[in-house]
Amino acid sequence: MSFQRIQEKLKILADAAKYDVSCSSSGSNRSNTTKGIGNATGMGICHSYTEDGRCVSLLKILLTNYCIFDCAYCVTRKSNDIKRAAFKVQEVVDLTINFYRRNYIEGLFLSSGIFKNADYTMERLVAVAKKLRLEENFNGYIHLKSIPGASDELMREAGLYADRLSVNIEIPTKSGLKKLAPDKNHDDFIKPMTKVKNEIIQYRAEKKIIRSTPKYAPAGQSTQMIIGASGENDFQIMQTSNHFYKNYNLKRVYYSGYVPISYDDRLPKIGTEVPMLRENRLYQTDWLMRFYGFDVSEILNEQHQHLDLDIDPKLSWALRNLHEFPVDVNTADKRMLARVPGLGMKSVHKILNARRFRRLNWEHLKRIGVALNRAKYFVICESNQFERRDLTSEKIKGFILQNSTSKYRKTLSNQLNLFG
Ligand code: SF4
């Protein structure tokens, strides 16, 4: 195979892979204990992102962009008239090793269109990971995409060689999936996810008893949802995320704003702006659920089905719940401090620590790193200054927006115009 042909394949298959954002590699600790190459120890080896937020530091490719399915939202769908290509297993192995040695990458993110059938495709993805680990002694990060419908045996093998596995549920609701990907079956996503979850639990339990038990998908499993392709509201999207976090022990749910790529009446028109700001708000909500103790129903519910675009979800919640404030930073518990706009978890811990020695005032909070331009409307502390507590939520929001600069300001005005 000529170098030129490989280059051509790489161009096609790397380009096709860019729509998948589920490639963050944090959480693995596969260290280089042998004389092998690569090292995925520690937090994240894939923290470089392009300006539009997509991850680029792994070699991120499809094994092939041939596909027997015709999912409307996907550039690889069989009815799309595009150049097709397929790598051989050994070609992906060679590319990964060569790129790694040149320091271009620290790992591999490998996905694929489905050719022939799910097992045929999954078998080849697993073969790449197996060769890298066993023949090349590669200890770098490997993220394998699980092919919906692949057999249990292949899923079990995949987890023995990959750091992370992911099955993309793509569309947040069953009805949306039926509309845009009628060939696909919701259960085909659930089955491999369940298998991976059970294997992770089982291998961990065994490792406690038999130390030589190998690691199984040490960075866990993740999934991706496309946002804005099928009309779901934010409430439905976050309910789905919540369900998957709770029932399948997912490490991450990734949200990917739909990039219009086809003329199809079922989808937003070509030229429609990618909902980057909405994507960002969903990530913030996800964060609040996972690390700040919020229940999804507090942020989104039947009465409040859409996230505000102009303010972040924590501020939005606080403004709808002014009766919970002000919070006294010198006495409030951790849960309540974490709910104050302008207070991140780092600041919360610093406050809890600092107030063991003194009562905190505004100056202390400033030094701790609290974003006082937001927090000052929601907290009280040791202070002689006069503080106004008679502001309405509209007024507070107005003051905060007046003083905030957002990198999303331009996007916000464009996206808000859509609702005009
Ligand atoms: S099965 Fe996957 S690759 Fe194939 S068209 Fe659907 S989303 Fe695209």
What report would you give on this structure?
By secondary structure, the protein is an alpha/beta fold. The chain is 42% helix and 8% strand. It is built from 16 helices and eight strands. It has helices at residues 3-17, 89-101, 118-135, 152-161, 174-180, 186-209, 234-248, 276-291, 296-299, 313-320, 334-337, 345-354, 362-368, 372-375, 393-402, 409-418, and strands spanning 59-62, 107-111, 141-145, 164-166, 221-227, 252-257, 327-328, 379-380. The strands form two sheets. A six-stranded parallel beta sheet has the order 1-2-3-4-5-6. Strand 5, helix 7 (234-248) and strand 6 form a beta-alpha-beta unit. Helix 2 (89-101) packs across helix 3 (118-135), helix 4 (152-161) packs across helix 6 (186-209) and helix 7 crosses helix 8. The radius of gyration is 24 Å and the shape is globular. The termini are far apart. The model is unreliable at 39-54 and 416-420 (pLDDT under 50). Residues 67, 69, 71, 74, 76-77, 113-114, 181 line the site of iron/sulfur cluster. Iron/sulfur cluster binds at residues 67, 69, 71, 74, 76-77, 113-114, 181.
Biggest sheet, spatial arrangement of strands: 1-2-3-4-5-6
Low-confidence stretches: 39-54, 416-420
Q: Terminal Cα separation, in Å?
A: 55 Å
Q: What amount of the residues lies in strands?
A: 5-15%
The total beta strand count reads: 8
Rg, nearest Å? 24 Å
Instruction: Compute the number of helices.
Output: 16
Helical content class:
40-55%
Order of helices and strands: HEHEHEHEHHEHEHHHEHHHHEHH
Tertiary shape: globular
- Provide the structure class: alpha/beta
Small-molecule binders: iron/sulfur cluster
Task: Profile the largest sheet.
Answer: 6 strands, parallel
What is the residue-mean pLDDT, rounded to a whole number? Answer: 87
